[in-house]
Amino acid sequence: MAKTNSGRFFEDYTVGETLHHAVPRTVKMGERALYHMLYPARHALYSSDQFAQSSGLPFSPLDDLIAFHIVFGKTVPDVSLNAVANLGYAQGRWLAPVWPGDTLRSQSEVIGLKQNSNGKTGVVYVRTTGLNQHDEPVLEYVRWVMVRKRDVDAPAPETVVPDLPKALSADQLVIPKGLDFTNYDFTLAGEAHRLSDYEIGEQIDHVDGVTVEEAEHMMATRLWQNTAKVHFDTAARPDGTRLIYGGHVISMARALSFNGLANAQMIVGLNGGAHANPCLAGDTIRAWSEVIDKAETDAPGVGAIRLRLVATKGGDPFALRGEDGKYLPDVLLDLDYWALMPL
Amino acid sequence: MAKTNSGRFFEDYTVGETLHHAVPRTVKMGERALYHMLYPARHALYSSDQFAQSSGLPFSPLDDLIAFHIVFGKTVPDVSLNAVANLGYAQGRWLAPVWPGDTLRSQSEVIGLKQNSNGKTGVVYVRTTGLNQHDEPVLEYVRWVMVRKRDVDAPAPETVVPDLPKALSADQLVIPKGLDFTNYDFTLAGEAHRLSDYEIGEQIDHVDGVTVEEAEHMMATRLWQNTAKVHFDTAARPDGTRLIYGGHVISMARALSFNGLANAQMIVGLNGGAHANPCLAGDTIRAWSEVIDKAETDAPGVGAIRLRLVATKGGDPFALRGEDGKYLPDVLLDLDYWALMPL
Amino acid sequence: MAKTNSGRFFEDYTVGETLHHAVPRTVKMGERALYHMLYPARHALYSSDQFAQSSGLPFSPLDDLIAFHIVFGKTVPDVSLNAVANLGYAQGRWLAPVWPGDTLRSQSEVIGLKQNSNGKTGVVYVRTTGLNQHDEPVLEYVRWVMVRKRDVDAPAPETVVPDLPKALSADQLVIPKGLDFTNYDFTLAGEAHRLSDYEIGEQIDHVDGVTVEEAEHMMATRLWQNTAKVHFDTAARPDGTRLIYGGHVISMARALSFNGLANAQMIVGLNGGAHANPCLAGDTIRAWSEVIDKAETDAPGVGAIRLRLVATKGGDPFALRGEDGKYLPDVLLDLDYWALMPL
Fold first, then answer.
1. C227 with A42: Cβ contact below 8 A
2. Which residues does A325 contact at the CB level (< 8 Å), separation at least 6?
3. SS3 category, B273
């Protein structure tokens, strides 16, 4: 009896089945400290208990992207071990803060399947939910990946492609219970700009860059118990390079965006995202943002800002696609998210 | 008066003396988080408080190898600063879990001495015990190292070689108080295989590999307050390479063995081990295991599995020694241990 | 409206103004664990709750240099983003221990300004104070930096140069409340030498060296939320190297000084310091110390030792300056501090 997990292939998925991902994880302040070591993260709500308390929370929760990475990492052995490409995200919502001491686990429902015309691969759509120790959902998102078939002669499943709206509307966002920005201290937070200071269409160059190292991205990826071979093993790819986990680029870009978006405190919605080009050690990650939308919320003093966050490894800020409509070769990430910001 | 520690030489040891190693260390969840960042560790009992509670423990203890590395690290300034080689381990037993908040210290009794025929070095045998803040032993093991003489003309001590059985018998293993695997959740743990699914003699290729970096092994080794120069200082070895701490290879291989041995939850016995060849940054560590023995225990649902764990930097899985009986050059580690697994 | 922070230039400072630095930070044991991973830190009071308790403290505080780095890091966006050079430190005092769970913030008073004769730069003197969540000061120090002018034609401010004594006297040092070394355990601490064993003028070569890596210094610097571009971005300096944060060298040298100064437990005063030459990845940091002064304190069994700590990347130990009076090219750091040691 084979003991090791060789991962699922395209024909192993059935629409409607639920995958219960392994290895729950208790997270505490150690993970927070590591996040601050791995990324230049400075958003005040995730840095200071007192700042969180003055914003109506009992204390500072763990960063929204820590929750994302842990929930995501657990899905890798069941969803993306034989993936050719991570194609997209949609309908991501943070549903409750993750507190130090919480234990997270993940499960995914298969919501779509579409074999590719070459007959060798197919697209698998899953809706992944992260749950805490009270079985309360803390995060959900849809992801679709291209997965190899084990047997090219296996019959194609019925095609089911879920209807995925391009973005969440602001009223779909879940605001953490008690959040209140009416006493917001802009000096402690680091910048004076409130939601009304941002214009739809405004673009912000976040200026700073970080040159990334092999040791850093491997440690970050391991921290989320993400086991995909291409991140760790120089024998896994033909050219001997280790591909940097796309989530490492997301966290780096989000942290760099503090410079200009210090008050976009909490990510609460993930509308979509593309890992446009591979990132490798030695690349210098830079970031720019564009304001896509703004909205009020029911929470006192709390607004929502919809942002495009683009990570690059060079090139002109604000350049995104070439004349052919394809991402420029220096673009690493094109992310569309909602964050909460004082009105 | 010289203020710095130049380490002990062979003639500085006396059979029967006890070395009280310096610098006690309080460990908490931060060390756990770091362990998860440094190694692809996923065993559920050390990852989730809830999983540990469903196994009869009050919450999740710190990984068995964290305890080993911390206890070991403290012995370096007194035992292996002038060591030529770390020759072996025997009779290692984990005696009590290490809980977040515990403070660990180490002491070693010199149990054997044997001068080598060249008159320049000798073998020192110590039994090291790790103790917590209640002076309860949490770990004990025998280690023997080859140590330089300060003065080659110093007289040879009487030869004392301790009688070290090749392995612990299963009834010598100490099971953590309360441990109960009768409600074990194999889905959350990550694999379906219980003790009865493993055959004595069965070999498992753990498939995955991790290419290691200088920054990682130095951070890991420092974390255990291990101060041996060869790990940190490019001037310490003639070829300018930094030798990777053997314990780093142990932890990496053990973590990789999750893939195929996810239910070998807790290491409770160390029968023996050899660091077969040096490991250097840039090497890709892989691992395979062989089932040596199986046993029941007195704890409900809890069995014990004796495993050979071999780490390599390449070569064929399951290859160990050449025709000359020596370890093959790609073999890094040959470890013999007992772990607890659901029956 | 520009959203990003381009930093302050020389003409933006006014003597007497107070800068309230952004992003308070709650620190816990995770930061301690990271400090032990990044540096070979072994001082017992900062390693063991029990050792701290036997020294009269409720438990082990966070390392003195963790407090320094966090307080310092917060000042970078307001003080040194456009700095040409960090010129010196003076009058640094640790005023209260930092406990796990404390939240730190920083503020700086501008206490001096002096435009340079070239008209392009000027020297800014600030007194920085770190405060905890009770608004109690935990640390204060004076730092002066050379800052670029935005507009070379901006008028020079009135020259104000603060009077900065070359060193704190022993009676200016603040001893943590309750500290008592009368039951000090020299074996657990790692060395037998008490204050009376050290002679003024005595020099100690700390023997060990650590070759530093890019990943390590970037992680350390990020951990303190220090955002200076030169540490992270290979495009920030003409030669493509990343300059290692001077504080990384301070912590590395201080940790190496354990070997010979294991009982210099707590830093309580910073008399002065110079970052003599840049440190780059690949350098091997070594350290030596010289005893400058000794004093008694009011606390039972507690003495104070004033030390010069020199970090080098090679060269002869105890060599500091050339015949021209300038620091030798291998000298990285020349630090003058007070530490507490058992009498």
1. yes
2. none
3. strand
Asked whether residue C138 is domain-assigned, the answer is yes
- Residues A87 and A204 occupy one common structural domain: no
In chain C, which residue's Cα lies nearest the Cα of B1?
C197
Pairing of strands B210-211, B284-296: antiparallel
Compare CB distances from C49 to B20, B103, B227 and report the shortest one's residue. Answer: B103
Contact between residue A314 and residue A329 where contact means Cβ atoms under 8 Å apart: no
The ipTM of this complex is 0.95
Partners of B260 on chain A (C-beta within 8 Å) are 3-4
E runs forming strands in chain B: 18-20, 25-26, 83-94, 103-115, 121-131, 137-148, 203-205, 210-211, 266-275, 284-296, 302-312, 331-342
Contact B271, B168 (CB under 8 A): yes
Q: Are residues B153 and B254 in the same domain?
A: no
Instruction: Please answer whether residues A225 and A70 qualify as being in contact, where contact means their C-beta atoms are separated by less than 8 angstroms.
Output: yes
Nearest CA among C233, C251, C232, C228 for reference residue C31 = C251
Domain coverage including residue A102:
1-27+62-153
Per-residue pLDDT of chain A (343 residues; tens, 9 = 90+): 589 988 899 999 999 999 999 999 999 999 999 999 999 999 999 999 999 999 999 999 999 999 999 999 999 999 988 888 889 999 999 999 999 999 999 999 999 999 999 999 999 999 999 999 999 999 999 999 999 999 999 999 999 999 999 999 999 999 999 999 999 999 999 999 999 999 999 999 999 999 999 999 999 999 999 999 999 999 999 999 999 999 999 999 999 999 999 999 999 999 999 999 999 999 999 999 999 999 999 999 999 999 999 999 999 999 999 999 999 999 999 999 999 999 9
Burial class (CB in 10 A: 0-12, 13-18, 19+), B4: middle
Is C34 a member of any domain? no
Residues C132 and C198 in one domain: no
